[in-house]
Protein: Stage 0 sporulation protein A homolog
Organism: Guopingia tenuis
Amino acid sequence: MNKPLILVVEDDSAVRNLITTTLETHNYRYQAAPTGEAAILEAVSYNPEVILLDLGLPDMDGIDIIRKIRTWSKVPIIVISARSEDTDKIDALDAGADDYLTKPFSVEELLARLRVTFRRLNDTGRSGPQDSVFTNGDLKIDYAAGCVYMKDKELHLTPIEYKLLCLLARNVGKVLTHTYITKEVWGSAWDNDVASLRVFMATLRKKIEADPSNPRYIQTHVGVGYRMLKN
């Protein structure tokens, strides 16, 4: 049985060849596109299971590509970019990206991100009925449906944001360390990547907190980790 199809969007031929060779070595199927226009055409034509997207393309910005794809598809998008500022990561995540990998990167980390993405896709809808709904104040998580609500309004979370929220929800009142969270959500490849964790927490807070600077749900323990407060 073939592995899922991955669309690689990268204009740098050296980086594109590195990614596609890695995918081929690990028996992934792939399509490659060097421009934004080609990427959109390939996405429509081949319906890939995952998109690996560079932001700095010659004909359009990757953020615009994410927005266009999100008008008709929920396909997981993993950004691979040399842009390393938190604001760049937040812009991509807000536009609809699911994950963000900063260049230069190791092939082991890329493969780990793909495994996490596919594991989430395979696990969707498998939650047991014994704890299928979590409520905390105005926050509700329907594990079986994979949906999150705030005051009965559905929130649109990225897969990483959803995993972070579920991890915190299953440990209400407990302080979870940075190391524990990154291992649980991303695996050992992201162990101690506090900067990336901080970016995802910031985007998650923007969606669930009325005032992110004065959070009701996710409390920061500086230098240690995060805790979900009981409401």
